[in-house]
Amino acid sequence: MNGLSPGMHLVLVLATPLVGAVVAWLLGARGRDAVRQSAAVTALLTLAAAGWLVVRYLASPEAAAGEPYAVVTLPWLVDGIFDVRLSLGLDGLSIWLFGLSALLSLTAVLVSWGAIQERPVGFYVLLLVLEAAMLGVFAARDVILFYVFFEFTLVPLFFLIGIWGHDERRKAAVTFFIYTLSGSVLTFLGLLTIVLWNASHTGTVTFDIDGLTAGLAAHPLPMNAQGGWLQWIVFVALFAGFAIKVPIVPFHTWLPLAHVEAPTGGSVDLAGILLKLGIYGFLRFSLPMLPDASAAAAPWIFGLGVAGIVYGALVALVQTDLKRLVAYSSVSHMGYCVMGLFALEPVAVEGATLQLVNHGLSSAGLFALVGMIYERFHTRNIASLGGVASRAPWLAALFMLFTFSSIGLPGLNGFVGEFMILAGSFQRAWSGVSEACRPAYLTLALLAVAGVVLGAWYMLWAVERVLFGPSREPPTGGSAHAHHEADEHGHHGAAGGATDDLAWHELAALVPLAVFVFWIGLVPATFLEPAAGPLRGIMQPSARAFAERMLEPDRGPAPGKIVAIP
Amino acid sequence: MNPALTSSETFLLLRPELALVAGAIIAFLAGAFAGVRRGWLIAVATIAAALVLAWSQPGGCSLAGGAAERGSITSGPVSIDAFSTFTRQAVLGLGLLLALVQSGDIFAAAVSRGAAVWRGGTCEEAGTFLLLLSGLSIVGVADDLVLLFAGLELVSIPTYILLALKRTDAHGQEASLKYFFLSLVASALFLYALACLYGIGGSTSLAAISARLRAAGTEGIAMALLPVALGMALAGAAFRLAAVPMHFYAPDVYEGTSPGNAAVLSTLPKVAGVVVLLRLLGLAIPGPLGDGTVGAAATAYTGLFWQLTAALAAVTMTVGNVMALVQTNLRRLLACSSIAHAGYLLVGVAVAAAAASTGSAGGRDALSSDASWLGGLGGATATLFYLATYALATIGIFAALAYLGHRWPEWTSGSGPRPPRQEITTVEDLDGLSGTNPVAACAIAVFLLSLAGIPPLPGFWGKLALATSALEVDWNAAVAYGSRRAAFVALAVILVANAAIAAAYYLRVISAIYFRSTKRGVQTDGGLAAGLAMLACLVLVGFVTLRPAGLFRAAAAAGDAVSRTPVVATAQAASPSAGPVAAVR
Between chains, do A228 and B376 touch, taking CB under 8 Å as contact? Predict the structure, then answer.
């Protein structure tokens, strides 16, 4: 099988879930078992193929040279102004997120094992289609192809939330869809403007992301009044879509609703992968293609990131619903990624990129565990839960592990990412900004540290209330209601008592994540090194623009540049 | 360019249209003898024959092949170029689908003594529909005001008959009367516009009017007549497009008629409107035979043209979508959606007009600044491409509705005899469709998502083309407040914002279909032909999703033919139009 070219291998990875979706659909008549088994096999095969591709990538000369790997290109709409191609490939920036998508898709299938009773065929088909879209968005090398996958992920998730979600599912599904769509349509216009600009200035039409990056580096979008502040306009347009996707506070209001109402499998994919698309978009497009606007906006977005950390943590602190708490912790943790990214400091950007994977693992694990708790006790209300540890020790142990990962316990993955982000931010605050901005930057960085403490507080407090203390049955009335609800929405509790602990499929869903939690925590270099080269290339123009803007205030604002006042 | 044709040869250029008329006559005659369904068999066979005839004409393969054959034949009132070929084939292709929908449009026409009277399509309807198609096809090939108007009337009059024949209850009568009177007003306005154009050009030939309009020294009377002519023409076209300010009839008429008729109304008149607008715009653009001059009158004409269409586009998109947000009746909702789509279509027309008014339509170099530029996307191309993607999805939805037919009303045994089936009217009637008819549910969801512009469905490619063309206008100018470029950037933003608004009500329908359950089962008692049309639309939508290039190329050939001077002629035309182009740079 060494004859399998990397490009074909990549196509195979993308095609496997789609083929699996068709198989699951055909097996629909054979009942739920056949469908979920085939879905699990498909997800496992995809993971194996994707994992193997990642290994091949790491060993390839392209990885060492920082070049795209496994490039496949087919024409799609090539005529006149359009040169849209089905162009796929991987590089150091996308490789881990690509692998994470395959990993979490398996988790999503396995955590839905017992929970999905109604219409299993549709559920698993959509889950596999969503997997293909998530893999595709990280493999896309064409702007339009990226946008197609970026948008298309909404469709399966819309149905997953709307059909298999909880009480408010219809509202949540529609809100989620419209909110994210309204941002990303502006992103669409921004991307088109980039393409047209590149075409008019280089004379060749290309929709290739690398080609556009090179073209815009040679012919930057104007950042002055004569050019109509075009770079600003495009940056804001891209920001609209990416910020909502992350979500950056104050554009986060769709997230808790979507998470709370989504079925567990959907939450796993949403928190684990889809939230990463925003940051990935900033890394792919905003930073390398619009360096001046990125640098000018960096202090503000850095501040929004910190606001997200603190706000998310404070709101999580007062939640009574365990899933909502984890959702707000996502808002808080994505704040770190935003902050690290827009610190524009190599260490911080690397940390932010690693934190994408970290958060994908820990939040997916936590959402999966919350789902398992709900299946057992039919409530997510923290007050009605207690003593889970005595009834389900393995569940409790894994809950603790992912909690520690989430709050950044040294030795686990979260610590590495958060430490790098904070270190980079302080470095930026001490030596990378003008005197006038330093206090503001230092304050923000200190607030982010406070966010770490808050994060530990709300997570550990929730752990204490849910896992320990007296074993508590949910109130009988609520239980009956929950059972009724379970019949309606397909949530079905496992039998109580001794069988409360994790079943094999639940262990199989969580253990791989736990392995990576330790692996990244103990040997982060494995994961940092492949991304380091590309990331420096991506952030260098923005960092340079930022340095020009910040460190030489005596020269006054450069012509056509906005003075940044953080 | 081409040797003069004799009148019989000219007549034969209209072979497909003649075939349609012949088929209509056969259908009318057969109505006296044959059963109800035969008429539609005749219609389908006739349209298929007309399609073959259209393909067999020189350059007729643009929809299937590419832009290779750009030759045009102009003779008397008829002009066969890439544009009319595209129009004709699009009309016939859509006509084939619509004929299937119409023949499957079986519903309870009236209730007499508690029992519904069921009726399907009749031979008369089939014949009338064929006449409608021939009229629309003539609009595409007309190179003369008289033939253009005759074609438009041949679209309108059969439409009245279709509306009146289908449904005889109070709603149906209201719908057909409303459409009749408003359409008369629109036709009268349009006729007035044609009279003004005749006054400017002194001829009914579009080529002659175009030459007069572009010639220097026609400013005096033309300047006075132009705004009148343009305003009236836009009003007439707006009625057919269902664009603001002539949009308000659409919800009532769609609600009052059958799904099959709504499918016709939401697509074919829009084709007519777009074709007429592009043909009228083409008056100000130097043709391949013209001397390439663009006088002050033509510049004023195109300037006014883009301003009016851009404003109408912005208002129409927004009004249509906002109206649709509050609709509960399914056909009213789709009517509002079709208003919004008329707005999207006008975006492309406005772009084409703007390009024409700077002379950048003269060459394919709209974007060039310091590098050679061969691309450039015309607004006409984008509009025609969008029109095709819109029509496929819309016909698909109405086909599905015709196929689904009726539902049982809420009823419990014990509360008397089971009431008769009711037509599917509201969004709620589709509740739980995914359980009762998963294929139709999936098809409707795909069509709605395509209309919403969710990638990678055809509607997305259409919006991609429209947004790109709008962003390209005056590319080299700065986005300054009040500039034309800013206006078109704003138009692009309004377009995508509307796409997001529209998603809200499309998702409401999908949400009913997939997220709700029902006790009132949908019957699926419509004709199988409508189901076939639905599947055909689904297949075509899938095809365009995967291979948008074929349709796009055909639209590009057509759009370039109508809104741009062919590249060959640009060399001669370069010097007179250098002024405005240089000013822009």
Answer: no
**Chain B residues within an 8 Å CB radius of A162:** 511, 514-515
Q: Inter-chain contact B507–A158, Cβ cutoff 8 Å?
A: yes
B74 bridge partner residues: B79
What is this structure's pTM? 0.92
- Portion of chain B with pLDDT greater than 70, in percent: 84
- Asked if residue A6 lies in contact with residue A54, where contact means CB atoms within 8 angstroms, the answer is no
For the cut 50, the answer to whether the pLDDT of residue B65 exceeds it is no
pLDDT digits (tens, 9 = 90+) for A426-464: 999 998 888 888 999 999 999 999 999 999 999 999 999
Pairwise CA distance, residues A512 & B317, whole Å: 50
How many Cα atoms sit within 13 Å of B152 on the Cβ side? 27
Residues 6+ apart with CB under 8 A from A2: none
Whether B386 shows a pLDDT value over 60: the answer reads yes
Amino acid at B195: A
- What is the share, in percent, of chain A residues with pLDDT greater than 70? 92
> Which of B343, B336, B346 minimizes the C-alpha distance to B254?
B336
The residues pairing with A352 across neighbouring beta strands, listed in sequence order, are none
Whether pLDDT at A254 is above 50: yes
Mutation for B interface: A81, A160, A231, most B CBs within 10 A: A81
Domains in chain A: boundaries: 297-381+395-461+496-552
List B residues 320-339 in contact with A (Cβ-Cβ < 8 A): none
Place B75 in a pLDDT band, splitting at 50, 70 and 90: confident
| For B543, nearest residue in chain A (alpha carbons) | A76
Q: Which residue, among A79, A119, A174, A206, would best test binding to B if mutated, counting the most B CBs under 10 Å from its CB? A: A79
Selecting from A82, A148, A189 the residue whose C-beta is nearest the C-beta of B493 gives A189
* A146 contact residues in B (CB cutoff 8 A): none
- Tell which A residues from 305 to 364 touch B, by Cβ distance under 8 Å: none
Taking alpha carbons only, the member of B351, B349, B353 closest to residue B387 is B349
The residue ranking higher by pLDDT, B115 or B135, is B135
Query: Minimal Cα–Cα distance from B514 to chain A, Å?
Result: 7
Instruction: Judge whether A536 is closer than 8 Å to chain B, CB to CB.
Output: no
Q: Is A228 on the interface with B (CB under 8 A)?
A: yes
The predicted-structure confidence for B308-325, as pLDDT tens digits, reads as follows 999 999 999 999 999 999
Six-digit token string for B441: 């549910």
Chain B residues 470-499 with CB within 8 Å of chain A: 471-472, 475-476, 478-480, 492-493, 496-497, 499
Cis peptide before A247 (omega within 30 of 0): yes
Which 169-208 residues of chain A touch chain B by CB within 8 A?
169-170, 173-174, 177-178, 181-182, 185-186, 188-189, 192-193, 196, 199-203, 205
Tens digit of pLDDT for each residue in B390-448? 999 999 999 999 999 888 777 666 777 777 777 888 898 888 898 888 999 999 999 99
Question: Phi-psi region for residue A487, left (φ > 0), alpha (ψ -120 to 50) or beta?
Answer: alpha
* Helices B259-282, B145-166: inter-axial angle, 10-degree rounding: 170
Q: What is the DSSP letter of A223?
A: -
- Crossing angle of helices A230-245 and A291-317, rounded to 10°: 30
Mean pLDDT (whole number) for A61-86: 88
Measure Cα distances from B116 to A477, B68, B257, B524, B544 in Å: 50, 55, 17, 16, 40
**Helix or strand or coil: residue A494?**
coil
- Tell me the percentage of chain B whose pLDDT exceeds 90: 51
Residue B567 predicted with pLDDT over 60: no
- Locus of tokens 């025609």: B384
Which residues does chain A have within 8 Å of residue B552's beta carbon, measured at their own beta carbons? Answer: 77, 79, 82
ipTM rounded to 2 decimals: 0.91
